[in-house]
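User: Show me an example of a complex going from sequences to structure tokens.

Assistant: Sure. Here are the input components:
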Amino acid sequence: MTVEIQFDTSWADGFFQKIEDDGPWGNWDLYKLAIEVEKHTVIDDFEGLQAPKHLPQLTPLPHQLEVAKRVVEDMNGKAILADEVGLGKTIEAGLILKEYMIRGLVKKALILVPASLVTQWANELTSKFYIPAVAQKKSYVWEQYDVVVSSIDTAKRNPHRDIIFQQDYDLIIIDEAHKLKNNKTKNYEFVQSLKKKFCLLLTATPIQNRISEIFNLVSLLKPGHLGNESAFYEKYKRDSRSLDDNEHLKQLVNKVMIRNRRADTGIEWTDRHVETIPIEFSQEEQQLYDAISELRSEDNWMATSAFSIMTLQREACSSREAVFVTLKNMLAKQESPSPAYEQQIQTLAEKVQAIQRNSKAEKALELIRNIDDKVIIFTEYRATQMYLQWFLKQNGITSVPFRGGFKRGKKDWMRELFQKHAQVLIATEAGGEGINLQFCHHIINFDLPWNPMRLEQRIGRVHRLGQEKDVHIYNFATKGTVEEHVLKLLHEKISLFEKVVGELDDILSKLEFGNFEDYLIDIFGHSTSEGEMKIKMDNLASMIQFAEEMKGSETNAAAGNSTVS
Amino acid sequence: MQQQEIQRFLKNYFQANGCEIIEEEKGYMTVQLTIELDKELMNRPFYWHYLEKTGGVPNPMKLTFITNQEAAPEHIKGEVIHFGSPRLHQIFQSTKNLAAYIRLYENHRFTSGQQVPLKPWLGLNVRISYQCDRKRDVFKSLGLQLINGQIVENFHDRLLNLQLTPKIPDYSFTLSPLIMPKSGVSRIKNQLVREIEQEDDNWAVEARERWNKDLQLLEHFYEEIEVDEKGETYENEKKALQDQYEPNVKISIVNGGLFYLTDRAV
């Protein structure tokens, strides 16, 4: 067989010039060093990973190294990385990109991620992998930089689109690739028309509903791997719910997809201890709560402000400060409030004034003293956050505030203060570009968000890779209030706290039923009786259980490393 | 490369370039750059341009490299250097750029009063890269005697045993080459190509098999679509497979030059 042999002539051209000009010639010591460098950077084996040698600060987990090795050695650089949430797909993709760059197989790489993650990806590649990745901001970036991170939505539009097609990318990485399940969309068409020499598709939920989705995803990566469209659908039922129906198909898919599960990684996850802390209102607090609840029967409230009443109820479970801020805003929002309305607000404000102590805060103080270790308190309300900071200080406990709106630098600073100087972090938000707080393992949910994903994000800050201790979660629930109902639903009916982070996402995405919070608002805001509320809650719980069972049956569908029964 | 090796390498590099090592302790070193090396490494053309225009006093930078964070004292601030750090690779590249071409004479130290003839050699250090969807490299060093055409392997290692100097030593004269440098380079090239063609090419055969397999899948994917409707995407995918798998070998020259050596040297 003949293999093309190319001989680089650029050196020789320079050499003849030097001879003609009689120099200048290089220095013998440097010449020897250059050969030393060459011998150190020559890679004399097709196999094996070089990247870890170049990344002494990074300690990849065994399963992450295994993935990188398989993609390079067995999958020829085209793969769907489908590890469960939280196992570090970004690290895997970074290792693979680094490996190819070290070996000189990839020079230009395009990384397409959701808009909210563009900066984070660019930062991680630069700081963790020493890959000079640039977040796309101006259109000239495409030509000037070799490694560019962008959102698909930007990339697919002109002028970017045309410029991108003129580049010769060696590797394309697409995060959240499950969004490309429909082959009729513009995004799909765009990715399909990119030249993909090497390609990584990252997704945590590769097989959601129909096998048509897996067909589209695999065909994007490796057209023909699952046959052509008509042959594929002839063989497999289009609406088949899972890959389990067909062993052969499953094997085919596993040739281009790697899916690690938590259980397979061999990483020891610490336990979670969940405790419900029942809170009894003081007499004054109870009176405020009752007064708010009674508004439901008032004509001028029921029709228009079910939502406001619920907000006030929830706030009354948190702090009088939270209620007060909302009351003030409600009054300010009305252009010309009726005397009756003003009177109602006034009455409530008086009840707020009458409250002398916060039962929850007192309980929290007692708990923090007993724990005698770092604690994170989550609350939904800024007013509560500020009150708690004051209250803890009065009682000699140091705390730092944390909000999602803080700039990156401030977030890191607060994290550091908490780690080194304060016992308590009081946070209003956990989501977004979060911080990792593995050094702490006690969480107090002072009040509950009605969006279970937010609750999961709260826990995810602490219970993640790197947490060495068991995690304790204390859920405060005031007796006889909406809070108690919601906690019951989340805790007992759908066992939220026993689920691993990411699992709920899987489940909810299967339901496609929209906003969980809206359901709760409907249940608590529009139920006319205790009985109706109970039925609606049971319905919601069984919907989620159903989705969970569906998921259970698919668990084995894409068994990467796990054994399939 | 171990951390001590890196520190030794950096020291050699800066000293070879005439920079003063201001401080060197276990785990770190501080070096005063020369103007040339500041321009080579620090990427601040505007500063130098400004200075040349205004005639100011040049102030090349001082750099501190930490090669071992545990050994270096805590108060030392500097760039942490390890095998993967971009700065080290920049210096690697610079080393190769600054020493791509050389001409040296053997410093034989014969004192007999007799004139010693030095024979011309062409020495080339090359990297041979075998590339498909994977890649491996081989380093080779060849020397070609430019009078009789003899080719020797591991030429660089032989040079390391000799005393070499950039100026022709006393009591020496150089013999004129019969083979011109241009044809010398192509003789070495032909020798390398012959060797490569003799080698086991299983890696390339397997790469072609992988390529063919994926190509067949691709054809099957598009087989129901009329030829003229397959369009750009199909051609694109085909090209992508070629880029991914097509085996080839690249020979690139790291550095090399002319060496005038005594008969007993090689």
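The lines above are the inputs; the final block is the predicted structure for all two components together. The mean pLDDT of chain B is 92.
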